[in-house]
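INPUT
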Amino acid sequence: MKIRAIALNTFKEATRNKIYYLLIFFGVFFVLSSKLVTLLTLGDKVKVLKDLGLASINFFSVLIAIFTGIDLVYKEIEKKTIYNILSKPVSRSCFIIGKFFGLALTLFVALISMVIIFFLFMLLFSGEFDVRILVYFILLYFELLIITSISLLFSSFSTPILSSVFTISLYLIGHVIWTFNEFKDKIVNPIIKTISYILYYILPNLEKFNIKNSIVVNSDLDSSMILGSICYAIFYISALLILTILIFNKREFK
Amino acid sequence: MKAIEIMGLKKTFTSNFMLKKYNVLKDINISVEKGEIYGFLGPNGAGKTTTIKCMLGLISFDSGESFICGKNSRSLEERKKIGFLPEHPYFYDYLTAKELLCFSGMLFSIPVKKVKNKAKDLLKLVGLEGKEDLKLKKFSKGMIQRLGFAQALINDPEIVILDEPFSGVDPIGRKELRDLIISLKNSGKTVFFSSHILQDMEMIVDTVGIILEGEIIKQGKLSDLISHSVQYYEVVFKDVDESLLKSNNIGFKLKDNNYITKLKDFEKLNYIIEFIIMNHGKIVSVIPIKMSLEDIFLKEIKG
Amino acid sequence: MKSKLFIFVVVSFILAGVFQYDYDSHINYFSEKNIFVTLPKGKTLEILSFGFKNFVADMIFIWSIQFYSNYSLMNRFEYVEDIYNIITDLNPEYKAPYYVGSWIMALELNDYKMAIRLLQKASKNLNNEWDFDFESGYYAFKYLKDYKLAEKYYRKAAGKPGAPSFVKRWQAHTVYMEDNLTYAFKMWLEIERGAKNKLEKNSALNHLYQIKFEIDKNNLEKKVELFNQRFKKRPYNLEALKRKGILYIIPKDFNGDDYIYDFKTGKIKAKKVFRWKKFS
Ligand SMILES: Nc1ncnc2c1ncn2[C@@H]1O[C@H](COP(=O)(O)OP(=O)(O)OP(=O)(O)O)[C@@H](O)[C@H]1O
Ligand SMILES: [Mg+2]
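OUTPUT
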């Protein structure tokens, strides 16, 4: 009940903030740029449209994930509204988990709205409805949850600017870290090798959620790997959330 | 059992990079009886807010103990009994007054239906009738303060802790809030509030604790602190010959054709009054000047 | 409570790691599917890198090293020239990619012409560096056996500031390999005159000895053959050539000693034995 109250309140705050402007911006951006792009390309226009739509949904939802997470926690502390919560019989873990679910709900609604715009547009344009794209959106949603928990972690002890920098860096690292998968095995020095192994497994590994390419070129999806990715996300998020709670328990509100 | 008991509370703030330590609370001992109104008095920066935050677990402290109804005040269980109004309260300004109260109530796990009724009553109680559906963005500072009061009462707390409840409220509003505090006391609640507005405090508190630079320097019943301290008597009279006063060694000041004399001695008072009447003077007023809380406060602070 | 939570964190991370490991073991990151097939040209990428072109160049370079040291991949060399062209377009003054790229092209792919193309791009962009030309010359000399080309690169390298003296010796040797003996002789004379130490001087003297011998040997053996045609027999010694007016002066070797003439075969030998041979 308490968690639900905090989650719903977070969702309310996010939606009454400027997040919807971003969504409107997405819609306009997507429609206009797809008009432009289809004018400029030859051949398979549907593929280009799909590429563009998925890329812009990805981009905008990641923006929302990074910045609402940081903004909402920071505001709560900075404006001291958190006093009203923590002075009541609400534990700090309750607060963090409530915030997380509130953000998850916000992201869900934002993503769903963009997906609906996308599907409607695709339906109008090409008359086809590719259900497999939904799989991509599900994986994207789990990636967004990981990003949100990263932003929660950083904003539990850092300033919003630093948190944004850290979160964006981890997001970028998360998408290139796979290139070090084989590299780490080739390191000879045992200390550096151990460090690389630890880093490789502790840093977020996000490229696995990116199945845009396989979707667009119609190649097969491996369901066991998709399930594996989701399990990875769940455990990674739990680790981050509990770590956040540990840090947040220590925090003083001045 | 005491409603609030704080013993030997110490708190140091470390500044950035651990370079400097600030001893903010040196030794705080407070005890609040059940059902009384306790005034926590101290100049700016004395450590009032810090003490309250320590008590509620918003910050850590170095040593000491803090109890509510005999149990650790920082435990979640005890916080169910507390209603708290923070200093300079700020609430989510995208919510309406009713939504805020409902949210607060849900944090106490109170069923939604019950909270809704309660919210209506409370808004009426603090004089925010008809403002239920107004966004907090549009609230004035005084209105916010009243709303803060209302949300502190949402769980029907045994103990109400108010940090500067009167700041930003106009004189009429202050009177209303004072009455409200008294009515809380009458309904059996304990009220603990900090303030530096002495008049408000003097009018309603049962017990005062004065904090200065992180130490409680005086604590006691207000009546005890004030009663045995009639400082002097002020006699105002007129139509007496000045030379007569001088020859009888009576000191005076002249103001608007009235003479004013200050007397410490009760015996001398009777003598003076007699003297005036015998000399066909007229007595305008005789006032015993008592020591106010302000005087006590200033005296304590100056040393 | 706190330590319990901490254990939870560790366990969750480990479980996440297990899934990561499982995922990694199912996927071949550098399989054909995952190679990006189209790379924009360097100029396009430069615009796309929003002012971080050096950084982008670094990233692609680092990535390329990972990529090309993966031996399980058969078609990984398809884009090697494109990739290094992009890196060096983005950051033309960055030396390492030229070296690494040319090594990959030459030593792994054995495409020496491609390596030389990259090195010559480096030589153009980094005008004061001698070693790109030197390496170009080496590949041309050693693998392409195009001595004319090699000589061109060595000459370019030798003309650049800071080029060590061995560049010039390599150039002279290439000229010799080209069979341009008189020019080679002239170069070695120059080197001998400018030698800074005994070793350089001796090396130059040896080369001069050999080149002079080869020039004289060719000349003398031709005259011997002429004698043979005219008199239907070989001359008994070299003096005979002079006596019959075929030769005016009998040449001596670089040290002033006589050459050794073998009457039976008509071949000329030098007194000194050589340590190196013309390799081909
Ligand atoms: N986060 C902090 N770091 C360092 N010092 C602090 C911090 N918070 C408060 N202090 C110091 O602690 C002292 C007490 O502060 P506190 O806010 O408790 O005073 P107060 O009695 O509530 O004053 P006021 O009447 O102005 O509200 C002040 O000297 C203040 O400078
Ligand atoms: Mg204060």
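end of record. The mean pLDDT of chain A is 85.
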